[in-house]
Specification:
The complex is a heterotrimer of chains A (222), B (264) and C (514). By secondary structure, chain A is of the alpha/beta class. Chain A has helices at 3-14, 45-57, 70-80, 94-101, 116-120, 172-184; strands at residues 61-65, 85-88, 106-109, 124-128, 131-133, 138-141, 158-164, 168-169, 189-192, 197-198, 206-207, 214-220. Chain A contains six helices and twelve strands. Helices cover 48% and strands 11% of the residues of chain B. In chain B, α12 (231-243) links the parallel β7 and β8. Classes of the chains: A alpha/beta (222), B alpha/beta (264), C alpha/beta (514).
Chain lengths: 222, 264, 514
């Protein structure tokens, strides 16, 4: 018997007490999915304020800018981050690309594909995001246009991420709902809640281990 | 005695228990080793107007067998509990642990024995079983039972009273209403004292390590008494406190509630 | 000097001589662990810190209890229909380009991973912290096959370089303090790659930087990674890994080949079910609102991440756990470690005393079920708890730990008594008989009253009596009273209620009578 058949047989044998007619949906799950928190609708002032507070609580920088203020904010951010080599994924707003290019940094694109070694030598990446979840201060990337493949937001030490306020939802359930179509179409998804961190030595938190040590969020009103 | 005695007062809790017949579940350990605890329970209940009866057939909740894994040996206790208490509407015991075992384990033991009738009867008896603190607050509706105890005490919420019987803050509410009593917080109050029934014999070193920390925390409060709602835990902690000549004594909640200004 | 394979120098730091099942049973192991005062300090500090953080983060969520119930329900749905969900997950993963393997046991699983590594021609793999691969002792299997497995989680790195065993599910080096970590890094890192910098202090930031530098080289070089998995979504075939440091993302993103060894119980029905677990897990585990990084991937993505994905679905005793309708609730576990952190026994014993990579309350209920109740180590585990129930309350999937412990104790007793009667069995039989009738208890009380008369009002100290001496070694005990409660009731109790005031009767007592 193959391992598969044997494991399946053991599992079926183990479940003899489950009535034959019972379907999975017959097991009650007392939960109503996708509910927002009481803080309000996506992009509402209360939700966005909560998001900012929670992201900042992780030690990340959040800069709020009006619609149309992204280019300036990006230039200021690159200066604040002391960025030297910046990778720009495909699909970013051309105005932002020009702004970054004019900021006195060396820019790279991922076309042709950068090697891991090359990416490791780049200090900053600029991306957009798929959704922000306020309650936990989480930003999710679905690695579609403007967000780059996963390695782009991993090897550079500084991540400059542009999030639109309309993308900010109150909590995880709405966030999952926003991401579900991308996941169902098999796009990888990465959630970021602050920069990388560890508490492995005496439970004392150290920010910045292997992932980007700095997360800098430009939150644009839209 | 404390240096500055507050003026004794005699609160009048009235007789909210008038007309109620209560069966006292003395628990085997207190019946045998610490009769002052069930006696105090009787005293409080009668002071509040209850008619207390003592069903002689009663023995033990059976958890010493159950929790050691001897389910078959616990069936006799379950059957006996139903026989002793099955006809009462109010069964009151001074132990969150024994009451918790009756409520949480008796049906399981009867089911395990394949006795559906016993399981039903055990479930019914369990639903009429109360820890003293629950009965006083939930059924009689009193917090001030007219007790007077002019001492500094610290309260240890025993694990089973907290997590199986789920008595919540009822013991604290009763203590706060006791005349003359000063309540001080116990550090790490919610940590187990390490008794755990046969755990104390099967894992003696761990049990002692836990009990020693609990005793240390009790001493650190400066209280005269450590109070709890389970005699077995008090025996465990009190044994350490006595061996180490700490001077702090243990006392059961029922004993404090039974104290009056007259005795003081 | 021979040329036999065993003479080949090791590739990775050797683990300690004694492996899990060679350890003494819990009560014995505890004797040694309780004497390690530095370890007890480290553990007390760590568990108290993380306990407080968990409580704070749980209290921030208004519907925390509702979430716990939902998680329990979802996991039960999966457990009761695991056969369907396994097939659904397998099909979904295959459709997304994942090669799915099945492993009956540790031998199957380690062979599958080794074969993949050999087929890829690699002599090293980078690893994400994974309980499943600890359970099957994958690193040693790979080492024997000439493949170096490098742990990349900081705590696992401390354990590996320290020739040590993990002692906690989430923080495997919880028993080590910063000075010990500094010494391990300074001594060992250079032997296996980038050395620790000269003059490194024991500041956690410096230690973490040393780990970053040591591992970066390995991440960039690695051709193959091995992970576990927190969840597999059956509907879509999506794998989910939650982590903090980014070592997980490195392993999941950079190498060409990724093998994920995942227990068969890790399935969730739908994507939407993640909303429950991703709220519960980080708050229960590290006490954060969200862990820094969560990766979700659904098969191979062209031009992004590993192009050769494998998933090994691991049984290794899980179907045995599933076959016990009471014990199967242990399979709800999402490895958050809240039960360890709250446990007064774990806090003092540490993880090694449990004889398995799964320590604490979850270890006490999982190991004896996964491995069976054959060894002295596994027979002792259901008793390694005072049944205080603190674990029940913090568990995000509402595992009824104490009920399962009691259930397993019964199984141990059944196993024990089927062969030959023991002293304990005789004692319990007698107690059972005594407690089955009031008059039997009264007879026993004659003896206790006798003892009371002998030791009148005294406290008893240490005495060389079997069993009792275990209690009396540290505790005094009050001598039994000369009068039991029932005797007092018969002889002295005078109802203080007024005559005629009985159930249903008219209360006629006046306050003055009191």
């Amino acid at each position: 018997m193959s391992a598969r058949d044997e494991v399946m047989a053991r599992v079926r044998e183990a479940l003899q007490d489950v009535p034959d007619g019972e379907r999975a949906e017959d097991v009650t799950v007392a939960w109503s999915y996708g509910r927002p928190l009481a803080t309000g609708a996506p992009g509402s002032a209360e939700v966005v304020d909560d998001f900012v507070e929670k992201v900042e609580d992780y030690g990340a920088v959040v800069v709020r800018v009006p619609s149309g203020g992204v280019e300036t904010a990006l230039r200021e951010a690159l200066a604040a981050l002391d960025a030297r080599k910046v990778v720009l994924p495909d699909g970013l707003d051309p105005a932002w690309v020009s702004a970054v290019a004019g900021a006195g940094v060396e820019t790279f694109t991922d076309d042709p594909v950068l090697s891991h070694q090359e990416l490791n030598g780049i200090d900053t990446v600029v991306t957009t995001a798929a959704v922000g979840m306020a309650d936990s201060g989480t930003i999710a990337l679905d690695h579609s246009a403007g967000q780059g493949r996963r390695a782009l937001t991993l090897l550079p030490d500084k991540h400059l991420c542009v999030v639109r306020t309309s993308q900010v939802v109150s909590d995880v359930p709405e966030g999952i709902a926003v991401l579900a179509p991308a996941i169902r179409s098999r796009q990888p998804v990465t959630w970021l809640s602050g920069g990388s961190a560890t508490s492995d030595i005496e439970l004392s938190r150290v920010e910045g281990v292997h992932g980007p040590r700095t997360l800098y969020v430009v939150l644009v009103e839209d | 005695m404390t240096a500055t005695l507050p003026t004794p007062r005699q609160a009048n809790p009235g007789r909210p228990g008038a007309g109620l017949t209560v069966a006292i579940f003395a628990t085997c350990i207190a019946d045998t080793m610490k009769p002052s605890v069930p006696r105090a329970t009787v005293e409080v209940l009668e002071r509040l107007g209850c008619t207390v009866e003592f069903p002689r057939e009663q023995t033990c909740c059976g958890q010493i067998m159950t929790n050691t894994g001897y389910f078959d040996q616990a069936v006799g206790s379950v059957r006996n509990y139903v026989r002793a208490f099955g006809d009462y509407d109010y069964i009151v015991g001074p132990s969150g642990s024994c009451v918790g075992s009756v409520r949480h384990q008796h049906e399981m033991i009867a089911d395990h024995a394949g006795d559906a009738g016993l399981a039903r009867a055990a479930g019914s008896a369990a639903s009429h079983t109360y820890d003293l603190s629950e009965f006083l607050i939930d059924v009689l509706g009193v917090e001030d039972v007219g007790a007077w105890f002019p001492h500094t005490v610290t309260y240890h919420p025993t694990c089973h009273s907290m997590r199986i019987a789920k008595v919540g803050d009822r013991p604290l509410r009763l203590l706060r209403a006791v005349g003359g009593l000063k309540l001080v917080d116990l550090p790490e109050a919610e940590q187990c004292c390490g008794f755990g029934g046969t755990f104390s014999l099967k894992n003696p070193d761990m049990s002692i390590a836990m009990a020693s920390d609990k005793a240390h925390n009790a001493v650190s409060t400066g209280a005269e008494y450590l109070v709890a709602g389970d005699h077995a835990c008090l025996m465990n902690i009190g044994g350490i406190l006595h061996r180490q000549r700490t001077g702090i004594r243990t006392i059961h909640l029922a004993e404090i509630l039974a104290s009056t200004a007259k005795e003081a | 000097m021979t040329t036999q394979p065993e003479a080949r120098p090791r590739l990775t730091p050797a683990p300690p001589e004694v492996s899990w099942l060679g350890m003494p049973p819990f009560p014995e192991a505890v004797k040694t662990e309780l004497r390690r005062s530095q370890q007890r300090k480290n553990l007390a500090h760590a568990t108290h810190t993380i306990r407080g953080k968990r409580a704070l983060r749980a209290s921030e969520v208004d519907n925390w209890e509702e979430l716990r119930t939902a998680a329990e329900n979802i996991k039960d749905r999966v457990g009761r229909h695991l056969d369907e969900y396994l097939l659904q997950a397998e099909a979904a993963m295959q459709a997304a380009g994942v090669t799915v393997h099945w492993a009956r046991d540790a031998a199957d699983a380690t062979r599958i991973v080794t074969d993949i590594a050999r087929a890829k021609g690699v002599d090293e793999v980078v690893k994400i912290k994974s309980m499943a691969t600890q359970e099957i002792d994958l690193n040693e299997a790979l080492e024997e096959a000439g493949i170096a497995a490098w742990e990349t989680d900081l705590a696992e790195l401390i354990v590996q370089l320290g020739h040590d065993l993990p002692s906690h599910i989430l923080v495997p080096a919880i028993h080590r303090n910063r000075t010990e970590v500094r010494d391990i890094f300074a001594e060992e890192m250079g032997r296996y790659g980038t050395p620790a910098p000269e003059g490194m202090t024991d500041d956690p930031t410096e230690l973490t930087d040393a780990a970053r530098a040591h591992l970066r080289e390995k991440f960039l070089r690695a051709k193959m990674a091995v992970s576990g998995g927190n969840f597999i979504v059956a509907e879509t075939g999506t794998l989910v890994i939650v982590e903090s440091e980014g070592n997980g993302r490195m392993c999941l993103t950079l190498p060409e080949t990724l093998v994920s060894v995942v227990g068969i119980e890790k399935l969730l029905p739908t994507l939407e079910d993640l909303e429950v677990f991703l709220k519960l897990l980080p708050r229960s585990s590290t006490g954060e609102r969200m862990n820094p990084y969560t990766s979700l991937w659904t098969g191979v993505r062209e031009g992004d991440g590993p192009q050769d994905l494998h998933v090994v679905l691991l049984d290794n005793g899980r179907s045995r756990v599933l076959s016990d309708p009471v014990g199967r609730a242990a399979l709800r576990c999402i490895r958050c470690s809240a039960c360890l952190n709250i446990c007064p026994v774990y806090e003092r014993a540490g993880g090694h005393a449990y004889g398995s990579p799964y320590p604490g309350p979850i270890g006490a209920i999982l190991n004896p079920q996964l491995r069976g109740l054959d060894s002295p180590v596994d027979k002792a585990l259901p008793f390694a708890s005072s049944l205080c129930g603190a674990c029940n309350e913090v568990c995000p999937v509402k595992i009824p730990f104490t009920d399962i412990l009691v259930h397993l104790r019964h199984k141990v007793v059944e196993k024990k008594t089927e062969k030959h009667p023991t002293g304990e069995q005789a004692l319990m039989k007698t107690t059972g008989r005594v407690m089955s009738a009031g008059k039997n208890l009264e007879k026993v009380q004659l003896a206790s009253r006798g003892a009371g008369l002998v030791f009148k009002n005294k406290w008893l100290g240490p005495m060389p009596i079997p069993l009792a001496s275990r209690w009396l070694q540290a505790r005094d005990v009050e001598a039994p009273p000369t009068q039991t409660f029932r005797e007092w009731w018969d002889k002295e109790h005078r109802p203080s209620a007024a005559p005629g005031e009985t159930a249903g009767g008219q209360g006629s007592a006046t306050e003055e009578e009191r």
